[in-house]
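[agent] plan:
  1. take the single chain provided in the ticket
  2. run structure prediction with default settings
  3. attach structure tokens to the ticket
  4. add a short note for the reviewer (M.T.)
[agent] executing step 1
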Amino acid sequence: MQDMEKQEAQHEQQPAPADQAAAADTAQAAPAEPTLEDKLAAAEARATEMQDAFLRARAEGENIRRRAQEDIAKAHKFAIEGFAESLLAVKDSLEMALKIENPSLESLKEGVDMTLKQLSSAFEKNKLQEVNPQAGEKLDPMKHQAISAVPAEQDANTVVAVLQKGYVISDRLLRPALVTVAQGK
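[agent] step 2 finished; step 3 output follows
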């Protein structure tokens, strides 16, 4: 008798085969909703991806900035290279002139003239231009520096004489021309 009771109890605990089929159909028909743990894991994975992408972009930005600084430093360091190269011929000519033991006045003048032409060519090649105003030209305070004012027969604030030439390099003033100007009448 006890065996029968045990069998009945087991039978009651097990769902009927029809109930099992219905439960299986319900599980297959309804998609499994992700649990909070699944959502959290997905969000953490996405955050890790984003952090990695951010760190890579930041490192790339730093590399670009560092390379740009190096390029600027090299440009500053070697900017004068072309000008210096142009002046080498001038220096060579001067050294050769000093090696001549008994130069004549005429050969010295000729050598200085040739050296001045080389220097002028180097200036021209490197966009270094003279500021040499003519008498009567209006004083330009951006290019000229008036040293004194003298009585003259020309208009006030016009150049009377140039004491020293000025120079500009690529439209930037290196040294103003030193001039005397006419006083007002």
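[agent] step 4 note for reviewer: The longest strand covers residues 144-150.
[agent] ticket updated
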